[in-house]
Amino acid sequence: MLGNFTFCNPTKLYFGKDALSGLEEELPKYGKRVLLVYGGGSIKRNGIYDKVTAILKECGKEIFEDGGVMPNPTTEKLAEGVGRAKAAKADFILAVGGGSVCDYAKAVSVSVYCEEDPWEKYYLRFEEPSCKILPVGCVLTMVGTGSEMNGGSVITNHAQKLKIGKVFGPEVFPKFSVLDPEFTFTLPHYQMVAGFFDIMSHILEQYLSGEDDNTSDYLSEGLMRSLIHSSRIAVKDPQNYEARSNIMWTATWALNTLIACGKSTDWEVHMLGQAVGAHTDATHGMTLSAVSLPYYKHIMPYGLAKFKRFAVNVWGVDAAGKSDEQVANEGLSAMESWMKELGLAMNISQLGATEEMIPGLVESTLIMQGGYKVLTKEEIAEIFRASL
Ligand code: NZQ
Ligand code: ZN
C-alpha cells in the first residue's frame, strides 16, 4: 500500500548537449549580482568556467567568485562563503560543479541572512530556515548525489567529527539545473564510479525498507537495472554518450523525492558512510561501497522477502528450487561482482580507517528507524569491524 504523501519538486531541468543555453533563459529572471560557486579548479581546466562566465557576461551579470569548495564541504568554508555572499550583496548563487558545490551553495543560500549559527540550527537541530533564502541555480559536472534536483545539503564539521545532511524543503531546491552529460566526461575514473555507487545506494536506501506492494519500488527496480546496464558500458567506454546520459538521468530520479513517495526508507548506509567520511574525508560514494555489503548481510534475515525480490527483479537470479536465503545471498553476490567490476572501495581500510577508529566511528553514526533492523551501537561496531 502507498502511504499518504505530498509531492512537490520545483526544480526546472535543462538536459542534453545544448543544456547550457538554458542559462540564457533563466539568468534574466534573477538580480544582477551573481555569486559564482565552484570547486578546486576542474571547471577551469575543462573549459566549463569559460563557457559559463561568457553567458553570465552576455546576460549583463556582475560576477563575484567563490571558488575552492572542497569535496565534503566544511563548516569553515560555509562561514567563508556567507562572508563572500554578504560582501557581494549577492542576488543569486550559481553553483558549477558536483554535489559538494551544489550542497554548499544551498547551505550558503539559507545562511546569508540567518541570525544564528547555521551548523547548529540546520545540521544539529534540523530546523527549517526562517530567514530570506537566496535563489540557487546549478550547472552539474559530476553525477551521483541528486543534489541538482533536491533539498539535500551535506556539511562536515571536522572539529566535531560529524558529517550531517540536512534535507531542506522545496524553497531551497535549485530553481533550475543544467545537465549536460558531456560535462561529466572529464571525471577521473575513481570519481565516476564513486558516483555510480552513490546512485545505487540512494535507490537501495529507499527500496530496502518496508514490505508493501507499491509503485515506488517498481520504479526503483527499473532505475537500478538501467544503472547496472549503463555503468557496465561506461566503465569500458567512459565517453559513451548513451550510457553517461542514461546514468545522469537515473541519478537525478534516484534522489529527487519521487521513489520515496508513500513508503518508508532506511538511510543507515549513508549514516555509516558519513561517519567514515567525517573521520577520513574519503570520497562519499566509496564510503558507501565500503560498508554496504557488511550492512546488508547483517540486516538481510530481517527483510528476507525484499532481498529475495531484489535478487530476482534486479539481478535476474533464478529462484527455482532454491531457499529464500540462497536467492537473497545470490543477489548480494551479484551486486558484489558488479561493484568489483567497477573498481569500488570494498572496505574502509582502503579509505584510511583503522580498528582503533571504530569507537569514534560508532559515536559519529546516527541510528535510523526505517530499515529492517534498528541497529544497536554494538551492531554498528560489528558492521564497521566487518568492513575493515
Ligand atoms: O573540486 P573540483 O576541482 O571541481 O573537482 C571535483 C572533486 O574533486 C571533481 N569533479 C567534479 N566534476 C568534475 C570533476 N573533475 C573532473 N571533471 C569534472 N567534470 O570530482 C571531485 C568530487 O566532487 P564532489 O562534488 O565532491 O562529488 P559528489 O558529486 O559526489 O558530491 C559529494 C558530496 O555530496 C554529498 C556527499 O556527502 C558529499 O559531501 N551528498 C549530497 C546529497 C544530496 N544533496 O542529496 C546526497 C548524497 O548522499 C551525498 O551525501
Ligand atoms: Zn549519497
Structure description:
- The chain contains 15 helices and eight strands.
- The model has no long low-confidence stretch (mean pLDDT 97).
- It has two domains: 12-183, 3-Layer(aba) Sandwich (Rossmann fold); 189-387, Dehydroquinate synthase-like, alpha domain.
- The strands form two sheets. It has a six-stranded parallel beta sheet with strand order 1-8-5-4-2-3, with helices on both faces.
- The protein is 48% helix and 11% strand.
- It is of the alpha/beta class.
- It has helices at 22-26, 42-45, 48-58, 75-88, 99-111, 118-124, 189-207, 215-236, 241-254, 268-280, 284-299, 304-315, 324-342, 358-363, 377-387, and strands at 12-15, 33-38, 62-66, 92-97, 136-140, 152-157, 162-167, 176-179.
- 5,6-dihydroxy-NADP binds next to α2, α5, β6, α7 and α11.
- Residues 145, 198, 201-202, 270, 284 line the site of zinc ion.
